Amino acid sequence: MASSNQNPQQANNSPFSPREATADARFLAVMQESADVFWILTPMGEMHDVSPSWHNFTGQRESDSRGRGWLDLFHPAEQPCVQETLIQTVASGRTHERTCSLRRYDGIYRLIHVRLIPVRKPPWAIAEIVACGRDITTQELARQMSEAQMQLAVKASGVGIWDWNLMTKYIECTDQMATQLGLFPQTSASYERFLACLYPDDRERVQHAHQRALAEKTEYHIEYRTIWPDGSTHWLIVSGHCIDDLHGKPIHLLGASMDITALKQAQEALWERESRWFRHIVKSNIVGIMLFDLEGTVLEANDAFLSLVGYTQEDIGAGRVQWTTMTPSEYRTQDAQAIEELCTTGMAQPTEKEYIAKDGKRVPVLTGATLLSRAGTPPLAISFVLDLTTRKEVERQKDIFLGMTSHELKTPLTALRGTLQLVQRRLKRIATTDGASPEWRAGVLTLKKHLENGIRQIDVQTRLINDLLDISRITAKTLKLSLQRCELGSIVRETVEDVRVTVPERSLVLDVPEDIAVHVLADRDRISQVVTNYVTNALRYSSPDHPVQVGLTVEEGMARVWVRDRGPGLSEEAQQEIWQCFHQVKDIPVQSGSGKGLGLGLYICQTLIAQHQGEVGVESAPGKGSTFWFTLPVVSSRESVP
Fold it and tell me: DSSP code of 16?
């Protein structure tokens, strides 16, 4: 590139010599940094001056490069295209680009991305063309390798790819997708042609999924069937995603699909096997079984179920059997939760409820269900129904027996306790009578101790009977609480004092704040019963030499009462089991007081505290003692019984 103010001597020198003007030096520096190879041509396509960049990249001699010799280094098949690009650049006066193969100094053709830039000089005529080339061989090989790997991965995975161009209304798809649709070797089709490939019953559903994805601009997932030219049906699972332009308008719907025909055939075969097995179970009439929809209609049922509710097969055929109308109103919430669980997990856990038979009689049952879901059809469910009439009657008779027996046992014990207390008072007066001999007084004191032991044993038996009565009430759901606003600290203190009277030889340490009033809504007698049970157990299973601690704390609106002993402690398994009804801890001996009870106390405590909206628990470890606790909600001074 020659400067306009060069002298003749400078004009004869190379434009890339050290004597070149500052502008040319800058130009040379920029070109060397921004291009792998560059050269300068006249508008006629001739090279007068050979740049160091061209010589270093191609190795072509200067004499061979001049004129149009530079063109010989391009691949023979591409030389006409290079010339055509040069002509377009000169004719339009705009930069043109092209990718072509240029032979390097080692004889290897390299892929070069070339930009032909026109340079104008006054009066704005094109004076020369600057050609800048960037070697993209490595990048192109990497791209081709990546595409090849992607194609191999897609082919190996069996995934078909498609692109619905919303502007052209055509769907372009890979060979695998075309095969899945039954279109191959055709890989382009209109949307109408695509819909024609689908199973007729699935077309509306697929259109709705596409419309929703475009309207909401979200992904969608769907299964549908295609029909091949040979008439065979195939299942596809498809996922799609909407692509928008810069203005948020959908322009493409891209998707991927996989043929799941083999999986569907396996599922169908499994369904048939399970159906045969299920029909055998139904006909056996071991338990009641019904097939129903989620709206409430019983579609099929075996004789065991029909005899339970008093309906017939004709009633089912006429659609007159609805499990929703057979369910009493108090179970509607429970049933709604069961249906939600069924739809979410595919199973509804067994629960007890009642059905109203055709004659109006209530029938207690245990029922559970499992969901049957088949593509293209509304979900159905199978329910197994077990008649609990006999069991409920046995439980009722047991509760009556426990209630009657407990009352019959409690009455004479109450009378006996009163008699013994009367004898105690008379012995006390006799023991203080003047003139009684020492032998007489010693005998009276001995008799008095025997009476105290007898009363203590009567109290133990009374507690056992009361536990049986409580269990009977809990089972029959007739256990009632008399809730009132109470000061919990006073309940704990009074209860501990009552226990101290019965076991004066034991040490009970109280950690109950007296300067803070802790108010709760509670049945005073029942909370005292829980504290008594905790303290009695702590005394029973700990050494007489060790004190038992009883405390009360308040945290985050909950009052916590705890009883701590230094007994043998409990394993993690035992901590879970002790709250069960009639459970007795094994391998832990009683260290003081009466022997083991019926295993009802902690179960009753848990039930009572639960009815107070509280919780129970234990913190223990083998050899480190145990701390039993329960919590109750604290109420403010303004709260009262609900």
Answer: T
Does residue 204 lie within any of the structural domains?
yes
The residue out of 370, 387, 404 marking a domain boundary is: 387
Amino acid code (one letter) for 40: I
What CATH number is associated with residue 67?
Answer: 3.30.450.20
Q: How far apart are CA 101 and CA 76, in angstroms?
A: 9
pLDDT score, position 13: 42
> Tell me: the pLDDT tens digits for 282-315?
666 778 888 888 888 998 888 888 888 999 989 9
How many domains is the chain built from?
5
- What is the rounded distance in angstroms from the CA atom of residue 252 to the CA atom of residue 160? 17
Q: Which residues contact 423 (CB under 8 A, 6 or more apart)?
A: 451
- Nearest alpha carbon to residue 588 among 626, 550, 630, 531: 626
Shared domain check, 305 and 338: yes
Contact 458, 417 (CB under 8 A): yes
User: Residue 501 sits in which domain range?
Assistant: 484-633
**Same-domain status, 434 and 495:** no
Does 629 lie in the same domain as 491? yes
Type of residue found at 448: K
Identify which of 332, 320, 420, 338 has the alpha carbon closest to the alpha carbon of residue 381: 338
Tokens standing for 258? 């996989």
End-to-end CA distance of the chain: 100
**What one-letter code names the amino acid at 253?**
L
**Torsions phi, psi for 211 (to 5 deg):** -60, -40
Does residue 230 share a domain with residue 212? yes
pLDDT tens profile 117-166: 998 887 678 889 999 999 888 787 667 655 555 555 555 557 888 889 88
Residue type, 225: R
Cα–Cα distance for residue pair 530/630, rounded to 1 Å: 9
Q: Which residues pair with 220 in a beta bridge?
A: 240
Answer yes or no: do 369 and 275 share one domain: yes
Q: Apex CA 526: angle with CA 524 and CA 527, to 5°?
A: 65
